[in-house]
Design a protein that fits this description.
With 644 residues, the chain is mainly alpha-helical. It has helices at residues 2-12, 21-30, 34-44, 52-62, 66-84, 88-100, 108-120, 126-140, 145-158, 170-183, 185-193, 211-220, 227-241, 267-281, 292-298, 306-320, 326-333, 348-361, 365-379, 386-405, 430-439, 451-461, 467-486, 490-501, 512-524, 531-541, 547-550, 573-585, 601-610, 615-619; strands at 553-556, 559-562, 632-633, 639-640.
């Protein structure tokens, strides 16, 4: 190239052949030979009457540096991504690179545009987002330690694999927040009234955000409490809140055999349940029924503790979101009805609600309504049980009647499900109440008539809910998305996922990967597969995604793709959902198929919506519909009952 330029100069631009040196300058400029252009400009810039300043300005505009060329290409790529609805992770990466390049050729107006792109894509900058959450927590800590704690946990959860300056402050700030909670008069009063640890605590009068962590903080203030018990209590409290990051790498501290002799009786069931939750989060939830949960079932506890300890079996059955096999179902059905009325009276309402929820979700309808009648007969004359009695009456009169009379089958279109959940901020165990009422809806989707009310309530109060609260919000979301999908409004369904993901509620951390998969499925269904890149990035940085969940997406041919289900692999709801929606949206709708059995009602109603069930089909579903009618057998060989 240099030889050609020299020949070009000699042949055409020497004075003796009446050449025009300005054409030589132009040739150098547009061939991007910056060094030769600068040297030639000193000699020829005045050629043709032009001013050297004009050549310099033209050189700045045309003869860009290699970095400038790359910046322009990046900007063009960014424009294309935004226009095509591409990966927000890629958009954030490009915008951030352009802003960090102080010598790029863009003026301030372009920089404002790039900053706006970054703000829109903050989700994909875990270091910036984590730093902001830590700074907000610092401001909230003196007056609102519970809100500060929620933000610190969220920062750990979303950016656990990323380094940023504020990250080193999280442990110290978290310790201060727990100490502040433990020092609040309300928590101290509750602590002295009832010595109950994580998973086994509660109050009939108010919802105590992060009660387990406050209890663990109070143990640390007691010199007589063994250090190993303090550590175990703190880990269990983090598990109860859904803060998986704090437990990672410390699982050996939850060995039942390592509990000290000074440990209270409640420590053993809490440890067994905590270890079961770790299996659940790792995608191995069924094995817990043959190990820790079986031991929890077989152990004997004092009369005060026993009902609360055994109720953990029912809570785990709800969190697993899979109908139990014969052995698991028989385990739940083995307790007499009167057993649940014993124990700590402060925990009665939560205990009854979780037991009924597990029975309804496992389609043990006959036993659920028999038990419900028994509870009504025993509690009707007790003071202070008004809200619980209202729920039990609703179950007995409306829900059972809707199933028996098949009332919903006469509707032409699905109507808004009647959800009598009272959004009262001070109601203890409100997450257990909400979850029971969702279970009672059976296979009904939910319309958006109360979206704003629910989302505002979640934002204000779910930060301190236990894991069952995260499950309740997740169940609500699946029913809402099913409604919107059947109505043909994917945009609203996607927006609902975003709104739930924006909640700073640790109880939702375990459900974060699944909600991300749901977002991805909704867009893949429309052929918008760029979101898979975003989800791939997010799951590898959050601390709650299991290896099973991470394997649902893979990189092949420089592209993030859905892992195709193998013929020898057992069914897995989210892998099969993602693959079905990917197939349906990428030109293979005729071959897309997806069968789903043995799941909870909300997963089933979403499955029907995504696989093409019409609004009329959804309307013809009972509130509580067994897999088979009558006293038949379910697909796993267990009984499927119908209420009397």
């Amino acid at each position: 190239a240099q030889l050609l330029l020299e020949l070009y100069r000699v042949a055409f631009f020497e004075a003796k052949v009446n050449g025009k040196p300005e054409l030589y300058l132009a040739q150098l400029l547009f061939s991007r030979n910056s060094k030769a252009f600068q040297a030639a400009m000193q000699k020829y810039s005045a050629a043709g009457g032009a001013k050297s300043s004009l050549w310099e300005e033209l050189g700045k505009r045309v003869n860009l540096s290699e970095r400038d060329n790359r910046a322009l290409k990046d900007f063009a790529d960014l424009v294309w991504i935004c226009q095509q609805g591409g990966s927000r992770f890629e958009a954030a990466k490009i915008a951030r690179r352009l802003l960090l390049n102080s010598n790029n050729p863009f003026d301030d107006s372009y920089k404002e545009l790039l900053e706006a792109v970054l703000l829109h894509c903050e989700e994909f900058q875990p270091d910036i987002r984590g730093g902001r959450l830590v700074r907000e927590a610092q401001e909230l800590l003196p007056d609102k330690p519970d809100e500060a704690l929620a933000r610190l946990m969220t920062a750990q959860f979303l950016s656990g694999q990323i380094k940023y300056p504020e990250k080193t402050q999280i442990a110290t700030l978290q310790g201060k927040a727990i100490e502040s909670l433990a020092s609040l008069p309300a928590y101290q009063t509750n602590f002295h009234q009832s010595f109950q640890g994580p998973f086994l605590s509660g109050s009939p009068y108010a919802a105590w955000p992060f009660h387990g962590l406050a209890w663990a903080g109070q143990l640390r203030m007691q010199a007589e409490c063994p250090e190993d018990l303090q550590k175990t209590a703190l880990l269990l409290a983090h598990l109860e809140a859904g803060n998986w990051h704090e437990v990672s790498g410390k699982e050996n501290q939850l060995a039942p055999e390592s509990l000290s002799m000074e440990a209270p009786e409640a420590a053993l069931p809490a440890v067994l349940y905590g270890r079961s939750l770790l299996r659940w989060r790792n995608g191995d939830e069924q094995s817990a029924w043959q190990d820790e949960l079986l031991r929890l079932y077989q152990l004997s506890f004092s009369g005060q503790l026993a009902p609360d300890a055994k109720a953990l079996l029912f809570e785990y059955a709800v969190l697993s979101r899979l109908r139990l096999n014969k052995a698991g179902r028989e385990m739940l059905l083995s307790f007499p009805d009167e057993f649940w009325l014993g124990g700590n009276p402060d925990h009665l309402r939560c205990r009854i609600r979780i037991v009924l929820t597990a029975l309804l979700e496992n389609q043990c309808y006959q036993r659920a309504f028999e038990m419900n009648r028994f509870f009504l007969s025993q509690l009707k004359d007790q003071n202070g049980q008004g809200d619980l009695l209202n729920e039990l009456n609703w179950l007995q009169k409306e829900v059972q009647a809707a199933l028996r009379k098949n009332r919903m089958s006469k509707e032409a279109v699905p109507v808004a499900a009647k959800l009598p959940f009272s959004l009262r901020a001070g109601a203890a165990g409100s997450e257990y109440r909400f979850r029971l009422q969702l279970a009672a809806l059976g296979a009904l989707p939910l319309s958006g008539v109360a979206d704003q009310q629910f989302l505002e309530f979640f934002a204000a109060h779910a930060k301190g809910w236990k894991l069952i609260g995260g499950d309740a919000i997740y169940d609500w979301l699946l029913r809402r998305v099913a409604w919107q999908v059947s109505a043909g409004d994917t945009n609203r369904a996607f927006q609902l996922c975003d709104q739930v993901l924006a909640l700073q509620a640790p109880c939702l951390f375990a459900f974060y990967p699944r909600i991300q998969f749901l977002r991805g499925a909704l867009l893949c269904r429309n052929g918008q597969t760029a979101i898979l890149t975003d989800i791939f990035f997010l799951l590898r940085n959050c601390t709650a995604a299991s290896e099973l969940e991470k394997r649902l997406l893979k990189v092949a041919d420089n592209k993030v793709q859905v892992s195709r289900p193998g013929t020898d692999e057992p069914p897995y709801y989210w892998r099969d959902l993602l693959w079905f929606c990917f197939q349906a949206g990428t030109g293979s709708p005729s071959t897309a198929s997806w069968e789903y059995h043995n799941g909870f009602a909300a997963e089933n109603v979403l499955h029907r919506a995504l696989t093409g069930a019409s609004k009329e089909d959804l309307a013809r579903t009972d509130r509580l519909q067994p897999t088979r009618t009558g006293h038949g057998r379910d697909t796993d060989g267990t009984r499927t009952d119908q209420p009397d």
